[in-house]
Specification:
Distance between the termini: 50 Å
Shape: elongated
Number of helices: 3
Mean pLDDT: 94
Number of strands: 0
Largest sheet: none
Order of helices and strands: HHH
Helix content: over 70%
Low-confidence stretches: none
Amino acid sequence: MIHIGLVIAKIVVVVIGLLIARQSYRAYLRYENRPMLYLAIGFAIISVGAVIEAVLYEVMNLSIFYAGMIQTTIVAIGMVAILYSLYGRQP
């Protein structure tokens, strides 16, 4: 059973995350600032991670455990990209 409030909340999170990713990517293009590229990648990945659990559980009929594990892994990868944008060595 799909809960409309949860679907709306997840859509809002994805839209905000992708807007941040888009702005970060535009900053990368404008200033050739490599950390902005990793920031954009990180937010894009986290935005996908925000909804993937529900998709895997509701649409693909994956167990909530495996859907949650995949979602957590995706979000962690996005966070690593953001962390790299903040602390990674830049040329």
